[in-house]
């Protein structure tokens, strides 16, 4: 699905053939599929309206108007039959049922980075709340929206919450001004509290491993700390130095060069294919000899949100690898072998890393840097893929298909789909 101003376009994922066209009441600012892909919501925050469209019944549609309460966020519940709208100033969360047309309200949601989280099986929802100048967490049962547990947290300013994939443990972390990660059970008991240091800026990012065995915490001190699921104690610290000196680490460096053009084939005016090859540069990976010095940027100390610390974390689907980005070294992706707790590979790019995402089916990482290229790494090696097409297609984010056969490449105004061939077994 993609949106252009007022229009919503539904395409076939394999052929990109247009299946449905819908026209909304205003400019679409957010779209989201239901879990079973039968419905899609379009949020128009400026008008405080959500429209829902059905793929099975194109004539059916639904309109939800929050009225004077306004709208700042909208999402599906895991069952794909309820919509949760957050009103302006985070006064409440409104739960709308598509089946019974009933409405429920959740009061005092906290305005934070990640204030709502569902368990992977869709049974429970945790909501961060703020009332009487204190932080609370409420846990709801999703099938009837009944309150299961309500408890206060030992935080000064709760910043985010996230369930472990197995749904047994909820991680909550404090604002960056205080290093504190709290781990709660489903019934609200505090299992553990972790603090690595005091006074400097604290937690910047958090990621659970798919097996729920590890919790990786990225910090402003340029380190990742990994906690185990038995004692919730630190098992290792992963540093991000500006110089890679270990001979056991492979450093792939992106190199750019202009292609050679056969002058005998040169005609005037040149053909379109020849003209594009004349002015385009090619990119490939080269293996650097250690020690390797990476581009290090010293953060500006007197500005808000300094570019410092580990801001991106992601585990591979098989739990074997962890990819990280240290904002001080913006052009590098670090890939750690979790089985050995050692740095395995560093990808040094020519441009700043915009994002990366693991293949959901195998250990294969896709990276984008705001250029017209996508970079793929697997234990077998690295490859640079040039996106064909005219004009400047700057890839700013990547989204894998659940099958791992294709991925969506997004720029500011365009998108394209990259299809990957599977190896014959």
From TrEMBL:
GO terms for cellular component: microtubule organizing center; MWP complex. Signal peptide: none annotated. Gene3D superfamilies: YVTN repeat-like/Quinoprotein amine dehydrogenase. It holds the Pfam family WD40. InterPro entries: Centrosome-WD_assoc, WD40/YVTN_repeat-like_dom_sf, WD40_rpt. This is WRP73 protein. It comes from Leucopsar rothschildi (Bali myna).
